[in-house]
Amino acid sequence: MGAAYVEVGRTRGLDEGFVDTLMNPFELGGKSVPDNYYSRVPALASEDYALQRTSPGLWEDARIAYREVRNPIFHGYQVDDDYAASVLGVFDFIAGLYRWIDGWCNPDRIMPGAAAALAPKPRGAA
Prior knowledge:
Layout: H1 2-11, H2 16-23, H3 33-43, H4 51-54, H5 56-74, H6 82-85, H7 87-104, H8 114-118
């Protein structure tokens, strides 16, 4: 959401309607949380930023993570799926999301040097 805010502001300027949309991205009409947050919100800045366009594999991981991990937890169920059994897999997924965001919203625009300093490190790196 913050990255979309920065990129829309940079490319076309911000207005109250856009800010209201970010406050409730479900108004964008997506069928799921991943659809709204990872496709429709970034597409407000550019259609090319939508996750399913830029990284179809990560898009599928997002759909699986929400369906099999996030949604059951938020709805009070236990998670016992193979995907959720690997905590490292979840962290890899989250790191992939950060790499995707950094690919279209360079953190150096806000904080010079941030891209190198804050980039997700490969698993096992200190």
